[in-house]
Amino acid sequence: QVRLVESGGGLVQPGGSLRLSCAASGSAFSIYVMSWYRQAPGKQRALVATITSSGNTNYADSVKGRFTISRDNAKNTVHLQMNSLKPEDTAVYYCKFRATMSRHDYWGQGTQVTVSS
Asked: pLDDT truncated to tens, each residue of the chain (117 aa)?
């Protein structure tokens, strides 16, 4: 029984920073891809950043140069360092892990990030 738990969300002023973390709890498994998504009210869930098992990263254009995704394979944990935050970054952020062997996707419950003055 795999469960992903996000942490690090909160309220921050424009220009500030937050660091999100997501760790798998339960069954041990190899993770191929770790990703962060976000969903603002009234909008569909959108990909923010992805990191593969080999360390290759991809970012949405809206966050390039401001966000950094990283992973700790030993701890099955992914992080998202968010700098220079903007009000439009306000959303619920979700982590998603894709298992290497089964290719099954696991989703976290989400953590709220609010950027406001």
From this structure: 789 999 999 999 999 999 999 998 876 678 889 999 999 999 999 999 999 989 999 999 999 999 999 998 888 899 999 999 999 999 999 999 998 888 899 999 999 999 999
Q: Report the phi/psi class of residue 30: left, alpha or beta, with left for phi > 0 and alpha for psi in -120 to 50.
A: beta
Q: Is 55 exposed, middle or buried (0-12, 13-18, 19+ CB in 10 A)?
A: exposed
DSSP-derived 3-state class of residue 88: helix
Please give the structure tokens belonging to residue 34: 């770790």
Strand pairing report for 10-12 and 111-115? parallel
The dihedral formed by the CA atoms of 65, 10, 4 and 41, expressed in degrees to the nearest 10: -80
